[in-house]
């Protein structure tokens, strides 16, 4: 078992992610390992240079009317947001988690640490998801 | 790390002209800074009274963390485009 798979299982054990999310992550990890077996992994020096998390959604050429989405989030903004989320009082945190859960996001914000974010950046080389052939979602750090 | 000074908003709707707004954020930061300074004594008193309940520390930490959050907004961009509609929110 690789270190990443072990980490995902640990996150399930800690209740940070659900079993379904873990399945998706393990699936993505397996396909990522196949496609980027020869690519070098990001070292801490490279991660320090990364500034933005990018999410690009592009419609397939067969579906030209689809949405084009371009999101750029500064990584420091995510780090600061995580720190701010960590100091939210427990009773309010419960309400936030409930609201997120209603939207289909079973995430406990207070359990996500900046270390988790760093690990995500290490393993997120360039993830491309093809949504039913309609559009392609590309997630990467730059 | 620098506070974003300009907010660009672009809205394009079907059968409407494209709307572009350039909002000078530095004016908003000035007003916000005045509010924060004015509210600081109240926050300190509230933190003192709620310290035992455990929320006092969070209240004290929230101010500096909020400032860090605002300082890191530079470069934030959301852009959604369709054939005839579109929206862009860019912090510069």
Strand and helix layout:
The complex is a heterodimer of chains A (142) and B (92).
Chain A: H1 3-13, H2 19-35, H3 44-49, E1 52-59, E2 68-74, H4 75-86, H5 90-102, H6 114-123, E3 126-131, E4 135-141
Helix pairs in contact in A: 1-2
Chain B: E1 6-12, E2 19-24, H1 25-50, H2 55-71, E3 77-81, E4 86-91
Helix pairs in contact in B: 1-2
Measured by DSSP, the beta-strand proportion of chain A falls in: 15-25%
Residue share in helix of chain B: 40-55%
Distance between the termini of chain A: 29 Å
One letter per element, helices H and strands E, the order of chain B comes to: EEHHEE
Mean pLDDT of chain B: 89
Strand element count of chain B: 4
Total strand segments of chain A: 4
Tally of individual domains of chain A: 2
Explain how this protein is built.
The complex is a heterodimer of chains A (142) and B (92). A four-stranded antiparallel β-sheet of chain A has the order 2-1-4-3. In chain A, 49% of the residues lie in helices and 20% in strands. The model of chain A has no long low-confidence stretch (mean pLDDT 78). In chain A, strand 3 and strand 4 form a beta hairpin. Chain A contains six helices and four strands; from the N terminus they run αααββαααββ. Chain A folds into two domains: 39 residues, no CATH class; 100 residues, no CATH class. The longest helix of chain B is centred in the middle third of the chain and has 26 residues. Chain B is elongated and about 55 Å long. The model of chain B has no long low-confidence stretch (mean pLDDT 89). The chains are: A alpha+beta (142), B alpha+beta (92). At the A-B interface, strand 2 and helix 4 of A face helix 2 and strand 3 of B.
């Amino acid at each position: 078992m690789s270190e990443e798979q072990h980490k995902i299982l640990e996150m399930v054990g800690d209740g940070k992610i659900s079993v379904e999310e873990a399945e998706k992550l393990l699936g993505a990890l397996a396909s990522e390992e196949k496609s980027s077996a020869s690519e070098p992994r990001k070292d801490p020096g490279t991660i320090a240079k990364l500034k933005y998390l990018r999410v690009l959604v592009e419609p397939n050429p067969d579906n030209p009317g689809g949405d084009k989405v371009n999101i750029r989030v500064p990584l420091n903004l995510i780090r600061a947001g995580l720190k701010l989320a960590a100091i939210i009082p427990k009773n309010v945190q419960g309400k936030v988690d409930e609201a997120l859960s209603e939207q289909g996001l079973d995430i406990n914000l207070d359990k996500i640490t900046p270390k988790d974010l760093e690990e995500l950046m290490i393993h997120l080389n360039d993830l491309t998801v093809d949504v039913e052939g309609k559009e392609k979602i590309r997630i990467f750090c730059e | 790390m620098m506070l974003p000074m300009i907010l660009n908003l672009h809205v394009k709707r079907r059968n409407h002209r494209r709307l572009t707004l350039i909002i000078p954020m530095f004016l908003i930061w000035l007003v916000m800074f005045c509010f924060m300074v004015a509210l600081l004594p109240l926050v300190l008193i509230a933190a003192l009274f709620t310290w035992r309940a455990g929320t006092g520390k969070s209240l004290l930490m929230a101010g500096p963390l909020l400032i860090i959050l605002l300082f890191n907004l530079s470069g934030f961009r959301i852009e959604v485009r369709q054939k005839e509609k579109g929206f862009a929110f860019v912090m510069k």
